[in-house]
Specification:
By secondary structure, the protein is α+β, with helices and mostly antiparallel strands. It is built from 5 helices and 18 strands. It has an 8-stranded mixed beta sheet with strand order 2-3-4-1-15-18-17-16, with helices on one face. The protein has an 8-stranded mixed beta sheet with strand order 6-7-8-5-11-14-13-12, covered by helices on one side. A two-stranded antiparallel ribbon has the order 9-10. The radius of gyration is 18 Å and the shape is globular.
Length: 282
């Protein structure tokens, strides 16, 4: 099953703020392997297939560095189509001297790094859903060491060129101020369900029994403040909904919860209880 196409609700695009636009363009093209789709004096958009934008960056006026212990982006996660793609980007990172972490989550194999401004990035591949272990409605995920020897065995050391065309935005992981309020918003307002709990500090939520489209944590502290508007970090992220009926239902649910939703062009904009901005569109 494809967890990143309709009728599933999924994260289609992430929009972040950076300090130096040209430095970040070079990083996302040369290190990560995105294609630059469009550029202005203060922003740039990136694609993997030449058609669909999945990441945008912007350099705000009077931008300040990423602020610690605030709400906002923990990481956005780039999902690769095949395990061999992950192996190839591992070899590329190693050759380029890129520092990265790694983990085997049982449902997936993942790499972790940051862009030049400290915006967190995960690059991962999924195991087949038939290999995921579910119990009492929750999927089992761990933080085991990644078996690099097995991952890269048999993979030809070809020059890294770009992210494969089938790459999508797999999920987003956010710092929030209050996990209970966040859970109420994302479940009752946006229609997701909890598929894994990590103690009392993090939850993983999804649509259609994916291991997670969104993760939420209070690791920056309960009651963490919202970062300044001009600081490096998350600008917004986009949820893609299957049809206008589903969009209207979600807007109605949010308004009944007294949550502000505004229409802009052909999409709606809202914010979660920790001021993370969300674009809702079909």
């Amino acid at each position: 099953m494809n967890f990143h196409q309709k009728p599933i609700t999924f994260v289609g695009q992430v929009n972040i703020k950076v300090q130096d636009l040209q430095r970040s363009i070079a990083f996302y093209e040369k290190v990560i392997g995105f294609q630059l789709m469009e550029q202005t004096d203060s922003s740039a958009s990136f694609t993997a297939d030449g058609k669909t934008v999945i990441l945008t960056i912007e350099q705000p006026a009077n931008v300040i560095p990423k602020q610690g212990r605030t709400t906002g982006l923990y990481h956005f996660a780039i999902l690769l189509p095949e395990r061999s793609d992950l192996a190839k980007i591992v070899l590329h990172f190693m050759k380029a001297g890129v520092r990265f972490g790694s983990s085997d989550h049982l449902v997936s194999e993942a790499l972790y790094l940051s862009d030049p401004d400290g915006n967190g990035i995960e690059v991962y591949r999924d195991r087949q859903p038939s290999e995921w272990e579910w119990k009492n409605g929750e999927v089992k995920m761990t933080v085991d060491p990644l078996d690099f020897e097995d991952l890269i065995s048999g993979v030809e050391q070809e020059p890294w060129e770009a992210l494969p065309a089938g790459t999508v935005m797999g999920h987003i992981h956010l710092h929030v101020a209050d996990l209970k309020k966040a859970e109420e918003f994302y479940l009752n307002g946006l229609g997701f369900e909890v598929v894994c709990r990590y103690g009392h500090q993090a939850i993983f939520i999804s649509d259609g029994k994916y291991h997670h489209h969104i993760a939420l944590n209070t690791w920056n502290g309960v009651g963490a403040p919202t970062p300044p508007e001009n600081s490096v970090g998350l600008s917004s992220y986009t949820l893609i909904l299957s049809d206008e009926t589903k969009l209207a239902r979600i807007v109605d649910q949010l308004e009944k919860m007294n949550i502000s939703v505004s229409k802009e062009h052909d999409y709606y904009v809202t914010t979660d209880p920790s001021s993370n901005k969300i674009v809702l569109k079909v």
